[in-house]
Write a structure and sequence with these properties.
The protein is α+β, with helices and mostly antiparallel strands. The chain has two domains: 162 residues, Jelly Rolls, CATH 2.60.120.810; 93 residues, Arc Repressor Mutant, subunit A (Orthogonal Bundle), CATH 1.10.10. Helices cover 40% and strands 21% of the residues. Strands 1-2-9-4-7-10 form a six-stranded antiparallel β-sheet. It has a four-stranded antiparallel β-sheet with strand order 3-8-5-6, with no helix packed on it. A hairpin with a 2-residue loop joins strand 1 and strand 2. Helix 2 packs antiparallel against helix 3. It is globular, with a radius of gyration of 21 Å. The two termini are 40 Å apart. The model has no long low-confidence stretch (mean pLDDT 88).
Length: 270
């Protein structure tokens, strides 16, 4: 078994990755509350890498580009329970409870770890038996549990209303700055267009104006330059770098690297 998802409700699942690591560049439509049961998760966003281990609870914001790497650890598969905090559910929640007045500014969307907090562990424990019994969680109970989770994260993280109660879709933003911050994510051009508030046609047109080249050529060069820096200056191994710089497999990365720089990645530190 490499990957298995067990749903007890459309918005609550247990995800298991088997004996090998999993990597994906992701962009979620919902906020995700993730309880990490075993294994290790690394999330690369911008120039930062966040590391989460067994027992951590993670809030993964929606509409945030990131590279996720899940690893088995200590002989155990990577396993987590994931709860979707959907826009529909959050709108219903905030219709009944107004966002905190002092939370509506200055909160930078990012990954939040709550460590081993007893209130979140209690919330997890209350749904765990449904996975073990392989029974469906009734909608009424699921609604209560999701609302309970929202209550708890609001209590633990002051200012989070600015994230959870923000229902705006991406608007048109500066293309150059956005691409310079997010080029390492291996996403379809349609997704880059969506996040910058553009159709695919407009994205390609504006990109050509901004960078005087095509998105594909620019992205490849930027990713290779980043990989070269990580290997040569940071003394990292090619096998550690290629996934974090937007390449899907080591052989393709090595071929593109040698074509660009005239020598293999393994020779970059010589």
């Amino acid at each position: 078994m490499e990957h298995q998802s067990q749903y007890i409700h459309p918005h609550i699942k247990r995800s298991t990755f088997g004996s090998r690591f999993f990597k994906a560049d992701v962009l979620f439509e919902d906020h995700l509350l993730v309880w990490l049961l075993s294994g290790e998760t690394k999330i690369v966003h911008g120039d930062k890498t966040h590391v989460f281990g067994a027992g951590d609870t993670l809030l993964f914001p929606r509409h945030l580009l990131a590279t996720v790497l899940n690893y088995p650890k200590n002989g155990l598969a990577h396993q987590s329970v994931v709860m979707h905090l959907t826009t529909e559910k959050l709108k219903d929640y905030y219709h009944k409870k107004q966002p905190a007045a002092d939370s509506l500014m200055g909160f930078e969307p990012s990954f939040i770890s709550f460590k081993k907090h007893p209130l979140l562990q209690s919330c997890l424990a209350s749904v765990a038996p449904y996975f073990d019994l392989q029974e469906e969680l009734p909608d009424a109970i699921a609604s209560v549990k999701i609302e309970e989770a929202i209550h708890v994260v609001r209590m633990l993280e002051p200012g989070i209303d600015n994230l959870l109660a923000n229902f705006a879709e991406p608007g048109k933003i500066g293309l150059s700055d956005f691409m310079e911050r997010n080029y390492m994510f291996n996403m379809p051009l349609e997704k880059f267009g969506y996040l910058t508030g553009r159709s695919l046609t407009t994205f390609k047109r504006d990109f050509k104006r901004a960078f005087a080249t095509t998105p594909q050529k620019w992205l490849t060069r930027k990713r290779l330059d980043l990989a070269h820096y990580q290997i040569r200056e940071k003394r990292r191994k090619p096998s550690e770098v290629y996934l974090e710089t937007g390449f899907e497999n080591l052989s393709h990365f090595s071929f593109a690297f040698k074509k660009q720089f005239g020598y293999a990645p393994t020779e970059a530190t010589v």
